[in-house]
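Weekly modeling sync, notes
Attendees: AB, CL, MP (scribe)

Item 1: holo prediction request
CL wants a bound-state model with calcium ion before deciding which constructs to order. AB pointed out that an apo prediction alone won't tell us much about the pocket. Agreed to run with the ligand included and paste results into these notes for async review.

Input as submitted:
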Amino acid sequence: MSKFSLSVRLGLIFTMTGVAFGIRAPIVIDGEFDDWASVGVAATDALGDSVSEVDLGRLWLSDDDDYLYLRFETTAEIDASENNELRLFIRGENGQELEWHLGGRTGVYRFGGSVTATSLDYTQIGFRQMPTVSTTVLEIGVALDAVPDGVNQLFSGMNVEVWLEERAGGDRLPDAGSISYVLGQGALPEETVIDFEKHRTSDLRIVTYNVLFDRIFNLLYADSFRRQIEAVRPDVINFQEIFGHTAEETRSLIEGWLPLEEGAQWYASEPSTEFGDTITVSRFPITRFWTLDALNSGTGNLAVELDTRELLGYYTIVINAHPPCCANDNARQVEVDQIIAFLRSGVTTEVGQAIEQNTPIIFAGDMNFVGRAQQPRTLLEGDIVNESNFGEDYVPDWDGSALSSVVPRHSESWWLHLD
Ligand SMILES: [Ca+2]
Ligand SMILES: [Ca+2]
Ligand SMILES: [Ca+2]
Ligand SMILES: [Ca+2]
């Protein structure tokens, strides 16, 4: 075969179907994209071929032992989990076809040309997607062992076909046909396990835990909570959703599970509002605390100052927050605006004695960041949106830079969480 005819044939194949050979990689669905560095672009869609702002661009594909991964770009920010008309299609070797509507958080499954499941829930395909806030780049995982209709596996061989449709603007990636992908190509690195030993005496172990309507006090669940807390041995625990129990009851529960050395005791604080659900328990004395009730709703977030001077040489501020969930973007923004305003006023002494220069500041909690990316941006960079209520922007790190966002992984896996 001459070189000429070979290249013509390859050219035809690539034009017709866009074959993307698999490069397995340790992808983590966390909204960070460094993990894709070794994965080449699988397809590049033209820009300018959509009549809406959402114009699909590049697509990457990867896999590991458990998931098929996709990463793709759009020109305008989208909220990946609502208010969008994006559809992901995955087709298997034997007549399987998944149609997943990102904005509806649901899908349809077809097998052999017939619909075999509708109103799919994300758990039925092991669906993972990050970031949870508005973005122009998304990463998605779909479980390789998914059986969407309970009978027919979505992935039954090594070959899969993938495409995306954006129905508001009429864009499609690729314009016609699909991207073919071969699973299982290439080696994965070994997963490393993080042990639970503390390696430095100055290590501070901070946990955040939404305990779902006081379940930690419910005898049905208390033992499971106890085992986790005993295993992790935290120094500070930020609890959310403790509605019907006090800080003292929570402190005494932890005291019973994790008794400290002779002469030491646990401490706890809660907001002074009627419906506050945040409680912070600490092995360090709580020297001050502040109720942050931005909405005057009787709920409220909590800031505590811990006396960590013996361990670290300085105090530590820990903010335990639980802004409202779901579509409530405006209320969440008000709460994060107020947290930044609190830090600014803590520095300028409006809240009494100033927060000491260079005191570490740690945010923890159940942030419910599932809407606009502005909310985490406000917390990290100090860009207040409601400036007429909460005053001017305040960059929250002491050196005038943004705070860092910690993306903690699971101890047994490079994933952030396991099912
Ligand atoms: Ca990632
Ligand atoms: Ca496009
Ligand atoms: Ca297109
Ligand atoms: Ca601003």
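Recorded for review: The two ends are 51 Å apart (CA to CA).
Action items: CL to compare against the apo run; MP to circulate these notes.
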